[in-house]
Amino acid sequence: MTVNFESLQELLQSEDFGDRLRALNEGRGLDLAERFELVCMAVSDPKARIRYDATSQLASVGKHDPSAAFALLSDRLLHDSETDVRAAAADSIGALKLTEAFDLLVEVYRSTNEWLLQFSIIVALGELGDRRGFEILAEALNHETELVKIAALGALGDLGDPRGLGLILPLVNNPDWEIRYRLAQALHQIGGPEARAALIQLSHDPVDRVAETARTLLAEAGD
After folding, report:
1. 40: CB partners within 8 A, 6+ apart
2. What is the per-residue pLDDT across 20-29, written as a single tens digit (0 to 9) for each?
3. I need a surface site. Which of 27, 40, 103, 119 has the fewest CB within 10 A?
4. Which pTM does this prediction carry?
5. How many CB atoms lie under 10 A from the CB of residue 53?
6. What CA–CA distance (Å, rounded) separates 156 from 141?
7. How far is CA 175 from CA 78, 119, 179, 181, 184, in A?
């Protein structure tokens, strides 16, 4: 079968899961408009694996029609039966910077106990850059799951809100080097004299990766 939009569209309607998955994968070679249309068909596939792949692809192809992408991603975020598909929806919302999804992201964060979904939502809130997200990011900094804490630290850096410094500066002595590593990046993003002083301290961190990152960031800032 010739690989073109029409043939892939037909394959995507096959009863065979493998055929549908192949159609979605081969669709990556189509132009943006056709790929977007194919992905839109696959977003509601009966198989979670295909819905996940299609939802993830919307992170890039959704730029073809942001309004339609927002509608599709909102539906997956709210109604999909699989947590990883819902998390992929949050990831794509963040990648596309769909600021109109802010309230929805917060609503879902508050209504779920699934840490994976909360992790993706926190990352997305940072990517949106909407300072209304500050309070929930501050709250997530004390999350019981370490990966969500790290995501919140990164998101506060992405947000660039100076209010975040008071929350993250104490982490300069955190025993977890991964937190200190992410802290260095967040300090650089927020900036200011206090952030610079903390970066200087981190440039002497006992973990080489942390120290090297802090030194590199100080050099980028001209310090």
Report:
1. 54, 68, 72
2. 999 999 999 8
3. 103
4. 0.93
5. 20
6. 9
7. 37, 21, 8, 11, 14
